[in-house]
Specification:
Length: 310
């Protein structure tokens, strides 16, 4: 029988070290796994503590969608809903015209571009003839509308009763604005009184009222006729609703409604900003006059510039 050779001491030590190293690695690996499991359990516990019940999640989601729909309707649909309402009156010029008014007109500025007045004249021979036109002449203390002189001349040549308006800037001296309008607009007998278009308040309502009063008085003194005051329904009630401003002829801007809600007197009503007229490529504001054609003509400037109360 062959003799077994003894295992060297060095080989035993090496094997022992390897086993110890392996056990250490295994232990470290197990500890890492345990730590990951513990961390996972902690995260699940934290999530479970802060987790929203499913019924509450669906409730909040539904409420958010509902509020978004309401907001969309209020800001984007409701203001224009009148466009889709049934037309119980007569439809012309792309809109439903207010019933009960015979005298129709429009207003323009450089935003309407170049106008073909020979085509536009055809509206005078329709069932709803266009009789008058207001056009922007100036703004603030130094801005002239680039189309005013040409359109103002063409309007008279093609048989429209014409008028000019000034867009008021509350940040510019009112007297300076009045002087600028006077230099820009030469009214003739048969023209409508000057118009002050007020749409901005500025930083001081009291300053606005004083400035508007200054402009109106200066214009009235020069042209010897009471100017027309243009403002939206809400703007007029909020800032210009007193005995001083109520004494001026009022041109109300109130869109997409069947009738004027304003309880005071008014002369003109701008009832839409989406009219379509031949000879004008862009949409245009349409208006009606609260009276007859003779009454409209009596509003115009007289040949002798005699002062009139309107």
């Amino acid at each position: 029988m062959a003799e077994r050779k003894p295992v060297s001491k060095s080989r035993k030590n090496l094997s022992s070290k390897r086993n110890v190293s392996t056990r250490i690695r295994d232990k470290q690996s197990e500890e890492k796994k345990d730590n990951k499991l513990k961390e996972g359990r902690k995260k699940k516990k934290m999530q479970s503590r802060h987790a929203m019940p499913s019924w509450l999640f669906y409730l909040l989601t539904g409420a958010t969608v509902f509020l978004c729909v309401i907001a969309f309707y209020y800001f984007f649909i409701r203001p224009y809903s009148y466009r889709w309402k049934p037309c119980y009156g007569m439809k012309a010029y792309g809109v439903c015209l207010p019933s009960g008014y015979q005298i129709h007109g429009f207003d323009i500025s450089h935003h309407q571009g170049e106008i073909d007045w020979s085509e536009l004249r055809k509206t005078q021979y329709t069932p709803f003839p266009i009789r008058f036109v207001f056009m922007k002449a100036s703004e603030g203390g130094d801005f002239s509308d680039t189309t005013f002189l040409r359109n103002f001349d063409k309007a008279r040549r093609y048989g429209f009763i014409r008028g000019a308006y000034h867009f008021y800037n509350p940040e510019t001296d009112a007297a300076k604005q009045a002087d600028f309008f006077i230099r820009s607009v030469k009214l003739e007998p048969g023209d409508l009184p000057p118009v002050l278009d007020i749409e901005k308040v500025g930083d001081n309502a009291y300053k606005l009222r004083k400035g508007v009063q200054t402009w109106l008085q200066k214009i009235e003194k020069h042209y010897r006729v009471k100017p027309i005051l243009y403002a939206s329904y809400k703007f007029k009630l909020r800032y210009l609703n007193d005995s001083i401003f109520n004494s001026y002829p009022y041109w109300i801007a109130h869109y997409y409604v069947d009738s004027v809600a304003y309880q005071g007197e008014w002369k003109f009503w701008q009832h839409t900003d989406s009219g379509i007229l031949p000879g004008i490529q862009e949409e245009v504001d349409l208006n009606v006059f609260n009276g007859t054609l003779d009454e409209l003509k009596r509003m115009t400037i007289l040949p002798d510039s005699t002062f009139k109360k309107l």
